[in-house]
Sequence to fold (428 residues):
Amino acid sequence: MIIVTIIVLALVFLIGFFMNYQDNESDVVDAGIFESPGADGTATDILDEEGEEAQTDDIPFEEAVWEYRIDRAMGHPNCPPVPEIEYPVDYYKGRLIDSHFHIANLPDSSPGDEEGEEVFYSAYFGEDNNENNEDGDNDEEEQENEVMPLLGKNIKISDIVCTLEHEGTDKVFAFFPVYPDIPAQMVEVVKRTMDLYPEKFVPFIMAPDSDNSPGGLSTVKSSVLTNMLSIYPGLFKGFGEIGLYPKEGGSRELPPDDPVLRDIYPVVRENKLAVYFHPGENMEDNFEIVLKENPDINFIVHGEQIEKPDEIGALMKKYLNIYFTVNDLYGDKYLLHTQGSTEDFLEALDNYEPLLKKDLATWQKLIEEHPNQFMWGTDRGGIAVWTLDREVGKKITDYGRTFIGKLNPTVRERFAYKNALRAMGEEV
Ligand SMILES: [Zn+2]
Fold:
């Protein structure tokens, strides 16, 4: 009898131990592949600066490549000294928050497929990755790849910080893409960014679900979002930007009161996030329902689909929890598109008096009628890498400061940064 009891106890212990072990394993997978955030990446040991050394240590191939990609995404701070900026008399000279800023995504191809990763392949497998060395790209694709910002390839977090410092922007509402197939890797970029630059970025989670295909959605569902947010609880401060309009050849229209979004609002509330939407046409009534139902959640919007006084103005009059980013300046136009260039942009803004006149005619009255709900922004960084150039940044803020300087003195600071802080729940 005693022997039987001992055997049973031993079995229970072993099963318990084994299950616990498996639990830990899946925790690691759930929480992402990176157990020690902020630790020095082993990947840099594998591939030194010259890309010569190749020692594989103990970490698996895929993890090593992701570490390498994330290190590259962060970059190195080598920003030239920032000269003191002297503003003309009629400029707004105070703090500035850009409330609409896109962060590029990491290359999401299979580990080993990107240029420069061959050395990993040969270090781990002792041979070249021939399969992936074929050059199947056509010219058009290559051109597009040059224009599209890609983190670690043509833009790094350190470059972005340098641009912001040179132009004199305090902070940006940064939309960090997080894809459902590599959430841990993409959230790791956010974590490291916030560890290094806690004052520069207000991180929003932008998590589309195959929005380029017809069955896709412009956001992941609430359960997936919950998992993404649980990787580093408290890391994100906002949810979005989510385009609510139908995407050509892709995701369907998603009104703010759609069941998919209604499922998400409790997650937003629990994680104390602000929501950032780009509404589609005629969604004011749907919006009204959501604003009324969620008075404790702040909603920020932008875009021509909702910018009219009888649209955004009417909603603002009734609800204090809706905010709007004014980024279609420069003659009420969006100039930061893929076909543009730094030279074209600088040229377009060379003589900006007439543009300024037009912008003030479009916006001034509306902004001053709702002095606590409009804010400045740029909508940079999403589709064209040149929009993150230092010269472009300087010109954008130069224009922004001139525009703000023309507003009623009681509104200037609110539009420049205070409303942005308030939208994020800060008391100002
Ligand atoms: Zn945007």
Remarks:
- Residues 100, 102, 241, 379, 382 surround zinc ion (CB under 6 Å).
- Residues 4-44, 48-54, 133-137 have pLDDT under 50 and may be disordered.
- The chain has one domain: 75-107+150-423.
